[in-house]
Amino acid sequence: MSTLRRLLPVYLIVIFRSVAWTLSVSGPVLPLYVRSLGVDVMEWGVLAMAQGVGLILFEGLWGTLSDLVDRRRLLISALFGMALVFPFYTVRGFVPYFFIFQFAIGALAVAIGPTARALVADITPLESRGTYMGLWFAAFMFGNMLGPFLGTYISEVMGYKYAFYASSMVLILGSVVCAFALRDLPRKEPQGERLNVGVVQGLKALFSIPSVALILLITVATFTGMPSIGSFLPIYASEEIGMSAVSIGGLVALSAGMQLLVNPLLGRVSDRLGQRRLMGVGLAAVAIMQFSFTRVTTPLELSLVTLALSASMAVMTLGVTMLSKAVPRELSGMAMGVYGSCEDLGFIIGPILYGFVWNAFSPSLIFLVGTGATVVALLLLLMIRGD
Asked: Please, is 142 exposed, middle or buried when counting C-beta atoms within 10 Å of its C-beta (0-12, 13-18, 19+)?
């Protein structure tokens, strides 16, 4: 069986998760929905942070656990668990408890990323790792392309609460379909006897590799810059630029489509030229585009800058490829979990920081702060020797 054919079920489960995720809680629907309920921008920053807390507290756990048990069971269980949480967002009286739902969704959704990436590392040869990690990210972005458009369309036609119901339906379907589609993947035998000593020893082994700490710091910096776009751009586009919900959803979908096209190509090229060099060029482009948001005044300008930024942000997948090549295979799940926790740390820092800057200074200033975070990541990348 070819590598690509063996990985298709993994890519499929990533698509289901990302469609459901961006259809409601991680796309433009949730920030627009909570604003319609009277939640202010600073409070929205707290809600976005609550999701980030769930992500960071559980991603390392799920990644490590996936090294000890059957990875497939974690994937399917997480999909079904998420499906049970989404309907709670539709109850208006539960608004004071939204931070609990955000935490729960983050804690469950975060099982998918490290576990699926570890499966990719399990199956793919080292010399083509960039290509297949690029395809993993393309699958993720394909779901991200469909979700925001579907979510905003459903919200406009039927109401916001139906977007959350749709997310649940997608996840239930995904868990059932993937329970069968994942049957042919190699089974990972439980290794519970390693649990007592494996975690501490594994972490020590990871951080003894010189490039690992730098890659993880780069991840924190880049993902601190990202919420200025992901969490706040829909509100900025609506309230400062005057775009409609459907237009914003279409723009987010087009942005995901841009990354869908660029990522597989970038992954393949990086296998030949090296991940570090291409990531440096991409981060410089990301910083330029983030700064450009401080100058946009029309929907067309904002749309063009957003699409250019999306193409540049395709380099984010190169960091996880570099990490997967730097660590031994038996620690791949743990490494992906720690990497994901660094992503999540950025998603915790970013929303609170940008909510404060928005309220205390100026909405457009959040993009300047995001630019600074990306520049820090670029400087850290220059400290890594080789690929």
From this structure: buried
- Cβ atoms within 10 A of the Cβ of 42, count? 15
Nearest to 120 by CA among 71, 79, 60: 71
Distance CA 127, CA 121 (A): 11
Q: Output b/e per residue, 82-107; b: 16+ Cβ within 10 A.
A: bbebbeebbeeeeeeebbebbbbbbb
Which tokens is 275 given?
């991940």
Q: What is the pLDDT of residues 307-348, one digit of tens each?
A: 888 888 878 778 878 887 787 767 777 787 788 778 878 877
As a three-state string, the secondary structure of the chain is CCHHHHHHHHHHHHHHHHHHHHHCCCCCHHHHHHHHCCCCHHHHHHHHHHHHHHHHHHHHHHHHHHCCCCHHHHHHHHHHHHHHHHHHHHCHHHHHHHHHHHHHHHHHHCCHHHHHHHHHHHHCCHHHHHHHHHHHHHHHHHHHHHHHHHHHHHHHHCCHHHHHHHHHHHHHHHHHHHHHHCCCCCCCCCCHHHHHHHHHHHHHHHHCCHHHHHHHHHHHHHHHHCHHHHCCHHHHHHHHHCCCHHHHHHHHHHHHHHHHHHHHHHHHHHHHHCHHHHHHHHHHHHHHHHHHHHHCCCHHHHHHHHHHHHHHHHHHHHHHHHHHHHCCHHHHHHHHHHHHHHHHHHHHHHHHHHHHHHHHCCCCHHHHHHHHHHHHHHHHHCCCCCC
Q: Which of 231, 322, 337 is nearest to 280 (CA)?
A: 322
Give pLDDT tens digits for 161-212: 999 999 999 999 888 877 777 666 555 544 444 444 456 677 777 778 878 8
Locate 288 and state its tokens. 């330029």
Q: What is the C-alpha to C-alpha distance for residues 291 and 305, in angstroms, rounded to an integer?
A: 10
- Cα 352 to Cα 44: distance, rounded to the nearest angstrom: 9
Paired tokens of 225: 């810059």
User: Would the pTM of this model clear 0.85, i.e. be above it?
Assistant: no
Structure-block tokens of residue 154 = 């459903």
Longest pairwise C-alpha distance within the chain: 59
The domains located in the chain, with CATH, are 3-381 (1.20.1250.20)
